[in-house]
Amino acid sequence: MKTNAEEQIEKELKDLKQKLLSGKTIIGAEQVLKALKSKGLSQVFLASNCPAQIMNDISYYAKLSKVSVSLLKLSNEELGVFCKKNFFVSVIGIRLE
Questions:
Q1: How confident is the model at residue 1 (pLDDT cuts 50, 70, 90)?
Q2: Where are the domains of the chain?
């Protein structure tokens, strides 16, 4: 039986997959930070092994922009595969609709 936290993570991954398919995502720390500064994001996802400095910067600007940040259980390598990219992905942002 799944716990409430596991169900929440599964739901977030399902939502993230839908957004990836619809093209409403931004991949990469620099691009996500730029979008956060211009208040163009609704949510940010971080890989479990995202570098601390990037995590701190994104958390800071997300707090200023009132954007939720979710830490995934996937590593940056697994997140890259999840996004069907041939490189590691540490940060994904969801654009405002």
A1: low
A2: 4-95
